[in-house]
Design goal:
It is built from 17 helices and 22 strands. Strand 10 and strand 11 form a beta hairpin. Helix 2 crosses helix 3. The longest helix is centred in the C-terminal third of the chain and has 24 residues.
Length: about 500
């Protein structure tokens, strides 16, 4: 028997099949071969047609069944991971009224900022645990203000994952986790936020019914079966946004466990049992996949826009043709890069700096003594230092860091990067060979909520290596303090 996992991103749809009994990955792939189009008809807008997601889902599912050479009738349930914070609006016929306003669209920022000021910091921190910012609720208010004729036709609102589940099953529902990522969930009262809906003048009837994360959320109907090649009647049993799902994929469920991603941007997702936040304008708090009212578990998410994109920029503008060559030269340079420092924030405004755009800075180069290798090491160290800086913010906001787990890709393949983070934090970094689609597939079998057994299977199937903190941490501490001093000087003068 098998589980199927879907991971709906803004660039592609990933699909994976895993063995139900062992959790072993059979095959994963993505559609389309090139990236999906993001429509941007105005500056800072980003939209996608939800039917494009469905088109590629159907194609990817048919491909993975054929290429895995399995009996499709042995697929017994489906898990869904999806791009967070998007808005899909449906009419009474179940058809999208407009393209989805997706996660990276920033048209509603000022609407959210005004709501934060009007509702008050205390209310948002105690009830929503975030600034309304640029999340789903604020995007819906934008539609109400700017497209009132469409707003009046809305039957239900959805997140991207809700829409995919609806296309599979015909059932319109959502989850507490999804509502929390849209800034619609009131943690204090354990319900949809009445105050936010009233402030935005949003009819509560637009919110779909709520289903639990690990349960039968609907069954594949005849139409979806014909379009995807899946058996009719199998259940969708799991749904979560991509960052909580990434944490699940890495066996992150408990207070003190941290998931990290080091791609184009960086993400630190720290799981906590604390319902207190004083950094709601710099950190996002979401209901984690195992959140319940009796045992609230949150994911504190801190995003670093300027991460892997910095190192990629260096590769594209240097004589090297591979990261391996860059890493080899960097490894010959001592810790601290002989004083060269790279401040790697050149990919837009950074939320952790209260939305300041401080850009990239390269500091203290001596033209007579420093080489390409110094620049490469300083870049890796600078990105690692930015992760450590972010973790310090998380620690100051009631997060505990006992262990970090990360995927075996991008920055975490670099020993310099991983050793620097592990040594400065003083905790190990466990590296796993997994993906969001594989995690979603495995989670489809978690109806029994046996998180311990689930984690043991991940360790058995996916663990690659562990970076331990180095005993002599003084050179790392000195280099970090020098970098931090430079960073804070730049922030102060921006």
């Amino acid at each position: 028997m098998y589980y199927l996992g879907l991971d709906i991103g803004s660039s592609s749809v990933k699909v994976a099949i895993v063995e139900a009994k062992t959790g072993k990955s059979i095959l994963s792939l993505h559609e389309p071969p090139n990236e999906m189009e993001i429509l941007s008809i105005h500056k800072d807008w980003a939209e996608q047609n939800p039917e494009i997601w469905w088109k590629h889902i159907c194609s990817a599912i048919k491909r993975v069944i054929a290429e895995a050479n399995i009996d499709y009738k042995k697929i017994i349930s489906i898990g869904i991971s999806y791009q967070m914070h998007g808005l899909v609006i449906l009419d009474r016929e179940g058809k999208p009224l407009r393209d989805s306003i997706i996660w990276c669209d920033s048209r509603a920022v000022e609407i959210g900022n005004k709501a934060f000021d009007t509702l008050g910091n205390n209310y948002c921190e105690n009830n929503l645990l975030n600034s309304p910012g640029n999340f789903t609720a604020s995007k819906l208010r934008w539609v109400k203000e700017n497209e009132p004729e469409l707003y009046e036709k809305i039957h239900k609102i959805m997140l991207p994952g809700d829409y995919v589940a609806y296309k599979l099953t015909g059932e319109i529902n959502t989850t507490k986790n999804g509502l929390s990522e849209g800034i619609l969930w009131d943690y204090k009262n354990n319900c949809v936020s009445k105050e936010l809906l009233e402030y935005y003048q949003i009819d509560k009837d637009l919110i779909p019914d709520i289903v639990e994360n690990f349960t039968n959320q609907g069954e594949v109907n005849e139409k979806a079966s014909q379009e995807t090649g899946l058996p009719k009647g199998i259940s969708v049993t799991y749904r979560a946004g991509d960052q909580p799902n990434n944490a699940l994929s890495l066996n992150i469920f408990n207070h003190g466990e941290v998931a990290a991603t080091g791609g184009t941007s960086g993400v630190i997702y720290a799981v906590t049992d604390s319902l207190v936040s004083k950094e709601s304008s710099r950190i996002n708090n979401f209901a984690h996949v195992n959140y319940t009212a009796k045992k609230p578990v949150l994911g504190k998410l801190l995003c670093i826009n300027g991460a892997g994109i910095q190192y990629r920029w260096l590769r594209n503008h240097s004589v090297e043709n591979s990261y391996e060559n860059m890493n080899r030269k960097a490894s010959k340079i001592p810790i601290g890069s002989d004083g060269v420092q790279v401040i790697p924030f050149g990919n837009g405004a950074e939320r952790m700096f209260n939305n300041k755009n401080i850009g990239t800075q390269i500091c203290n180069i001596n033209l007579n003594t420093h080489s390409h290798g110094h620049l490469y090491r300083a870049a890796l160290e600078g990105i690692a230092f930015s992760f450590v800086y972010g973790m310090e913010i998380l620690k100051g906001d009631n997060a505990l860091i006992n262990v970090i787990r990360a995927g075996n890709d991008n920055l975490f393949r670099s020993e310099i990067f991983s050793n620097t983070v592990a040594t400065l934090i003083g905790h190990e970094i466990e590296i796993y060979n997994t993906t969001g689609a594989i995690g979603a597939a495995r989670a489809a079998g978690l109806i029994d909520k046996d998180f311990k057994g689930f984690g043991e299977n991940i360790t058995k199937n996916d663990h690659v290596m562990t970076f331990m903190p180095l005993k002599n941490n003084e050179p790392y501490q000195l280099a970090y303090q020098n970098w931090k001093h430079e960073l804070e000087h730049i922030i102060k003068n921006k």
